[in-house]
Design a protein that fits this description.
The chain is α/β, with parallel strands linked by helices. The chain has a domain of 218 residues: Alpha/Beta hydrolase fold, catalytic domain (Rossmann fold, 3-Layer(aba) Sandwich). The protein has ten helices and ten strands. The strands form two sheets. The protein has an eight-stranded mixed β-sheet with strand order 1-2-4-3-6-7-9-10, sandwiched between helices. It has a two-stranded parallel ribbon with strand order 5-8. Helix 3 links the parallel strand 3 and strand 4. The longest helix is centred in the middle third of the chain and has 19 residues. It is globular.
C-alpha cells in the first residue's frame, strides 16, 4: 500500500490521461455476456500477476466504468484482480430505454440475477482458489446486499460504500402502494419520476454528490462525449423498485455471516441513517466507518477524506481487519 501514489486535486487530470490511460490500454480488457431477456451485459476486467484476491465492483445509480478508473487502478496496484460489470441500463450494457438518460428496472431481483450470471460465467471460473470480495457503492450496495443474502457462497467478504439501504426520499408504505396501483393501471412505469430533471449538458458540481472538481469534470466530460454515459433520470418504475428494497434487505440481513465493512458519509443527502441503524442491529458484526464531512461519493471526496478513505479500504482488503480511525 505504501507504493501507491494517491492522487490529489492538482495531479488528477494529468495522471488519468497519462499513467492511468496507459494502464487501461495495456491491462484492462472488455467483454460481454448474455443475461436474461437476451440483454448484453458489458464488463471490464484487469488481472495482475499473482493476484492477492478478486474484487467485483458493483456500481451505483447512473454510473459506469469511467467513474472508477482511479479506484480500479489503486486496487490493481494493491495486487487485486478486478471485475467491473456495468449493470443493465448503464454504460454499454443493454436494457436501456430509447431515451438515453432514463433509468428503468422492473425489480431489483433482475439486477441480482444479472450479477449471478456474471459470477457463474465469468468470475467464478477465473478465480478458483482466490478470495472473492464484493465492493459496492450506493444502488450497487442494495443490489449486492440482496445478492449475498440470497447467494452467500459467492463471496468471502463485502465492502459497502454509502449503500442504498434506505432512501431519504422514500414515501410512506400506503402512499407507495396506492401509487404503484395507479402506475399499473396507467402504464406510466417508464416515464420520468415526478420532480426529476432530465440530462443537461450544463455541469452542476455544486449539487452533485462529489467534492472533487477535477473528478466531477472528468466524468462529466465522458457524459458529454458519449450518450451511453448520460443516464441521470430515474423512471417511476425504477423508483418503485428501489423503495421496495429496504424491507427486503432488512428481512434477510440477519442471515449475513461474512465480514462486512460499511463506509458512510456524514453529509449524504440521498441515504437515510435509519437504514444503517437497522442494518447494524441485524448484522451485529458489521464494521461501520463514517466520514462526517463527506458527501455520498466517498471516493470523490475532498483530498484529506478521500485519501484516508482509500487507505482504509486497502487496509481492510490487505489485512482483513478493522481499519484505523
Amino acid at each position: 500500500m505504501s507504493d501507491i501514489a494517491f492522487l490529489g486535486e492538482d495531479d488528477f487530470s494529468a495522471s488519468m490521461n497519462g499513467e492511468n490511460r496507459r494502464w487501461r490500454n495495456d491491462h484492462v480488457s472488455q467483454g460481454s455476456l448474455r443475461v436474461s431477456e437476451g440483454i448484453s451485459l458489458n464488463y471490464y476486467k484487469a488481472v495482475p500477476e499473482n493476484p492477492k484476491g478478486a474484487i467485483v465492483i458493483v456500481h451505483g445509480f447512473c454510473e459506469f466504468f469511467g467513474k472508477y478508473h482511479e479506484y480500479a487502478f489503486y486496487l490493481y496496484q494493491a495486487g487485486f484482480q478486478i471485475y467491473f460489470p456495468e449493470q443493465r441500463g448503464f454504460g454499454y450494457s443493454g436494457g436501456r430505454l430509447k431515451e438515453w438518460d432514463l433509468v428503468y428496472i422492473d425489480d431489483y431481483d433482475t439486477y441480482v440475477s444479472d450479477l449471478k450470471t456474471f459470477m457463474d460465467e465469468v468470475v467464478v471460473p477465473e478465480t478458483e482458489g482466490l478470495e472473492r470480495i464484493l465492493l459496492a457503492h450506493s444502488m450497487g450496495g442494495a443490489v449486492s446486499t440482496l445478492f449475498i443474502e440470497k447467494y452467500p457462497a459467492y463471496f468471502d467478504r463485502v465492502i459497502l460504500n454509502s449503500p442504498m439501504l434506505k432512501l431519504k426520499s422514500e414515501p410512506p408504505f400506503l402512499l407507495r402502494k396506492l401509487f404503484a396501483i395507479w402506475v399499473g393501471l396507467t402504464g406510466k412505469a417508464k416515464e420520468p419520476a415526478p420532480g426529476q430533471e432530465r440530462f443537461s449538458s450544463k455541469p452542476d458540481f455544486e449539487n452533485s454528490c462529489c467534492l472533487s472538481p477535477a473528478r466531477y469534470d472528468y466524468v462529466f466530460e465522458m457524459r458529454l462525449k458519449d450518450e451511453h454515459y448520460r443516464t441521470s433520470t430515474p423512471t417511476i418504475g425504477w423508483a418503485l423498485a428501489s423503495f421496495k428494497t429496504h424491507k427486503r434487505i432488512m428481512d434477510g440481513a440477519s442471515a449475513i455471516k461474512m465480514p462486512v465493512t460499511v463506509f458512510t458519509a456524514g453529509n449524504d443527502t440521498l441515504i437515510a441513517d435509519e437504514g444503517y441503524r437497522l442494518f447494524k442491529e441485524r448484522v451485529k458484526h458489521a464494521v461501520f466507518i463514517n466520514f462526517e464531512g463527506s458527501k455520498h461519493e466517498l471516493f470523490n471526496a475532498a483530498d484529506e477524506d478521500r485519501i484516508r478513505y482509500f487507505k482504509e479500504v486497502l487496509r481492510v482488503l490487505l489485512f482483513s481487519g478493522q481499519p484505523d480511525h
